Give the backbone structure.
Amino acid sequence: MYRFNESKDIHSATELMLEGLNQSIAMGSSKIMTSCLAMFEKIRDHIELLKK
């Protein structure tokens, strides 16, 4: 969230969240997975704007 909030680097923030999600799945950690998904939802609208 720091990359998104402070540097406005949406691409980097998205990549890091997806990497965290992949790692949480590999570790079998539903707590971390839920956290990554919650963060992703917070910036989802901004990601959609980049696609346009």
